[in-house]
């Protein structure tokens, strides 16, 4: 058992070293920027079958960067998280079909407006009772968090007396309307038109309202060079006609259609979806496994430390252990992830990579649960054994290490196995801060093909297979170390 503990500690130290190693700085003289985008917002942003990002915004950014001689790294995340990431300084800018509004101008500096749009209201295609805004009285409607559509809906909510339901992505919002949980949704006109073209069974019942322009946004007072490069590059591609070609490709006559161009008239079967998205599904699975393995090993070390503190003779140390466990068990993981990824950079001014922030979240949250049951395992060992060891002349630390800890940890092995599986499932929450793991991969695929039921069935089956394999592995390890 002592060999197993030493091996666990050594592994944890090695993993901490790997996580702490900074990425090498590129010798390329071109400036590199980190750009957040909501890749569930076609035709402006979406992920293709091979994992690349396309759409009006994505193609435009690629053309502008080529003209202006800068490189960029895309960070896919929900629109609301992207706004917060810019404000926290975690990313340099946000390009996600963001409407320029007076409220946003208080926190953002915007580029020249590059696309004029307006908000429309759409209902299920079979719904004949909702024909105008007046028919929404007393009904529940769907909006996407942080968008111009949500702001417009809130501005007229009292006038038309409807209730709001908020969603983080467009596809979930559309599905909520089609299944009847809400009667209508507010969406930008080109996005709604693209979704209908892809087969979404909704129909628009209003003319565009609250018209305005989309802009590229950076944190107010910062990244002026990036903003100028964007404006200069945009002016160049407009003058050359390249911008018009990009827009026409997605929303003009004969525009890009996922079903026609990608599916090759194949039926959207589960097998075809897997075949078309195998690389994206593979990468998402790998990222999930990486987070799980690193997270559970480091959380085990942290939890073991908290468990030891929890049985120390010192009241101060026991109280410290109890407080830490109470704090991080009580905080919802999503709140903790946002605090680490967005809150801390606001306080310190230092960026934290999304993977590192996600890993720290797992360590603190899962480690608190591990610390709780490790402490319980130690306390379940008969006190007489510790007293007997002390009476034989062993100091407290050695008596704990040689007598109590081996027995206590053996008692907690089933709990360790269960926590391993819980950690795997909890990694899905980290998609909110831009980590493209398995759940976020499913969201990106659905944004493109709108096959929610089939995609989530695939994702669920992949989780179930991995959990089954992990359970078999954990049971094998349990038998070996007992």
UniProtKB/TrEMBL annotation:
Cross-referenced PROSITE patterns: ABC_TM1
InterPro entries hit by this protein: AA_ABC_transptr_permease_3TM (IPR010065), ArtM/GltK/GlnP/TcyL/YhdX-like (IPR043429), Iontro_rcpt_C (IPR001320), MetI-like (IPR000515), MetI-like_sf (IPR035906), Solute-binding_3/MltF_N (IPR001638)
GO biological process, one term: amino acid transport
Membrane-topology annotation of the record: Multi-pass membrane protein
Pfam families reported for this sequence: BPD_transp_1 (PF00528), SBP_bac_3 (PF00497)
Record flagged with keyword RNA-binding: no
Domain ABC transmembrane type-1 per the UniProt entry, residue ranges: 285-474
SUPFAM superfamilies to which the protein is assigned, alphabetical: MetI-like, Periplasmic binding protein-like II
Localization per record: Cell membrane
Keyword Signal found: yes
Alphabetized UniProt keyword annotations: Cell membrane, Membrane, Signal, Transmembrane, Transmembrane helix, Transport
TM segment ranges: 291-312, 324-342, 354-374, 453-473
Signal peptide start and end residues: 1-29
GO molecular function terms noted in the UniProt entry: ligand-gated monoatomic ion channel activity
Any one GO cellular component localisation term in the record: ATP-binding cassette (ABC) transporter complex
NCBIfam families with a match to the protein in the record: HEQRo_perm_3TM (TIGR01726)
UniProt record similarity statement: Belongs to the binding-protein-dependent transport system permease family.
Protein name, UniProt field: Glutamate superfamily ATP binding cassette transporter, membrane protein
Organism annotation: Weissella viridescens (Lactobacillus viridescens)
Lineage: Bacteria, Bacillati, Bacillota, Bacilli, Lactobacillales
